[in-house]
Amino acid sequence: MRQAVALLFIAGITAGCASQGVQPESVINYSYDPSASLAKNVADAAGIDGVSDMPREEYEALVAENPELRGIDPRGAVRGSGDAAKLLGATAAGAAGAMDPILGLSDITTGALGALSWLADDNTAPARKNWEIFWLPDGVSIRDFEKSYVEAVAQAQGLNLDDLDLRYEDSFLGKQNISLAPEDCVEPDGSHDSICSVEISHPYYQIKPRGGEIHRSKLELPEPRRAPAFISSDNAVTGPILSDFGWVYYPPESGVVYNHKTYLEMSEHLPDYVFLYVVKTTDGWVAPRVYANGEAHYFIEP
Fold this sequence. Notes:
Blueprint: E1 8-10, H1 25-28, H2 38-46, H3 56-65, H4 83-88, H5 107-117, E2 131-137, H6 142-156, E3 164-171, E4 174-182, E5 198-202, E6 204-205, E7 214-215, E8 225-226, E9 236-243, H7 260-269, E10 274-281, E11 284-292, E12 295-298
Parallel strand pairs: 1-5
Antiparallel strand pairs: 2-9, 2-10, 3-4, 4-5, 6-7, 8-9, 10-11, 11-12
Helix pairs in contact: 6-7
């Protein structure tokens, strides 16, 4: 039996002919809000509604009862000794390999964080699903993003890129879809077994969260504009562009998971123009956060 350690990414089946729509003015005219968290700024820049920052006073009240929550303070109070430092290592938002400071808390605290930082009563809110969000720098294509993404996932799952075969597969799911596979997952004809390869089999994208999903080949990219302040670039970028590849692992006994540690490691390997908005892991629902550059950023007023 092959070692089934890889993932199949499917954005979801899109029925009929979808319209991508146009980006709202709030996205086109977005400017950084220093009174909001970095996570909230990323969500606002991407047009993800249904999420808000936890007010500072409410967060401080929770910290008073649960000091370990200081570990997710956007002000960076974690540096040094104490429970938060043990939970999160050396960085305020959490170094790769650290446990999630929220998952270890009581149901009451976890529930408070979840309810106060997003609109739980709106089942249709874009904030209720995971998103990949990115702004393409000049000269970078969606194909480049896809390659970076599957490589980041492979590395986060403990695979060595030097041991993987890169191929662009044609199947009933689409043409020229990127796939990475270990040696024992490559068929005699050179194709990859989707059960044990990391591949984006359904490359559909959106230019706004409530817009239609459009196949890569038909997506009309937004006009380049100045990069948001949270992206370290003085040049124009194209975005935001969103995808919701999700995660499926085969077979279940393979032990493949998407948890806090996985997303930290994925974001560490992704380019700095990619952000992962996460509200659900294989451990269950979690308080909303944005992963970027190997750190987790929470929706808490700075």
